[in-house]
Specification:
The complex is a heterodimer of chains A (about 280) and B (about 200). Chain A has about 280 residues and is an alpha/beta fold. Chain A has 6 helices and 11 strands. The chains are: A alpha/beta (about 280), B mainly beta (about 200).
Amino acid sequence: MTDMTVTAEAMTEAAVTEAAVTESAVPETFTPPTRFAVPGRIAVSNRVAALWQTATITEIRRETPHAATFRLAVPDWAGHLPGQHLMLRLIARDGYVAQRHYSIASAPDDSGHIELTLDHVEGGEVSGWFHSVAEPGDTVEVRGPVSGFFAWPGDRPALLIGAGSGVVPLMSMVRHHRARGLDVPLRLLVSARSPEELIYAREYGAETTPVFTRSAPEGVAVGRMAATYVAPLLAEQPPGGWEAYVCGSNGFAEHASRLLVAAGQPVDRIRIERFG
Amino acid sequence: MNVTRGFTGRPRVQNAALPPGQYDAGDDWPVLSAEVTPELTPAEWTFRVDGLVEEPRTWSWEQAHELPTSAYEGDIHCVTSWSKFGVRFGGVSLDRFLDVVRPHVSATHAVAYSHTGYTTNLPLADLTGGRAWIAWEFDGEPLAAEHGGPARLLVPHLYFWKSAKWIAGLRILDHDEPGFWEQNGYHARGNPWEEQRYSGD
């Protein structure tokens, strides 16, 4: 198996982070002669990503009628950065395995626990098990964290745009920002159908602007994510500009990324994670 | 492997065409690109093959369409666990492009790169012998931008992140160099039948 390699930029950033980082050689990698390239943010440990671990559900919290948070004890968790995801698998008695990628909702800490917030997907065999069967004490298997692309080490100003459960990896960033008392600017635009469907509604502060698409509290406009929300944030950019993170359905991601580009955000500083 | 209490899963499908750990996505075709979908017209699209070759060459849209066409009908498999059966892509076999540039005998690998700067690495053996295409049609229609149109690489026997969208070129090498996802923890080759999802699998 080849060793993981990283770009020089990623190594510099990895060096200032504490979690999920390996020491890797930095050979030259091919840079394409095309318009732009989005560099990875951190190096990922291939050893950690390869190992399945047992995770025990310790707490289940309802967030909205369709989403709940599952707190997992993972004693040997190697740590993660906000925005990273893990792979999770459920195993039936006949050996049938179902595995999915899920974003990590909790900020990195040393509690030996991580949290996932899952939508109850219609007909979903994995989310269905979590929402209908799972109880504290049940165990599942996880491996990770994986992917450094959507990670935010807390270094650069971050503009976060999410919809529905797409807010989950972004919330890890907001929580990290708070837990560490970071000074670096961070803003969150989060779209939900209604106040009842807004995940983490009680946790948001001045950094967050919710956008409601079907119904809103009195005095708040109903409508889609629009330039009126995005453009002002790009008109008043922090020094060095924003690193933009977009998460949601493909339709939302296409829409939000076009708004960012139209408002002047460089395409090589837009990171997108789409459901699928 | 620990059995999950109370988990039964979907009805078991006896489908020899489904690689381990995958499920049939049916009519869905999820889009998972990590970057902004580029607005790239056929007139702007080019495809270049260079590196360890006798004759580096860049094709325009029209020039690429002068090559003999070829179709792929079969299945595709995404590392996020969905597979899609019975898809039909149209384009040109990569062999036709490589016939023109003639890779050196020392050539072993390639880095495929997109007009967005996305990269992915592949052994040359996975790109030759009628197993890889430059594809611009899906189900007889022009390939949609979000699925890599105007043209994408198609290497359907590997996980689909290897099939670079908005394909711009191949750099032919005498060694393996990790691409975008491969630098982010994913497997160097990505064979779904051996479940090579992450580095170390």
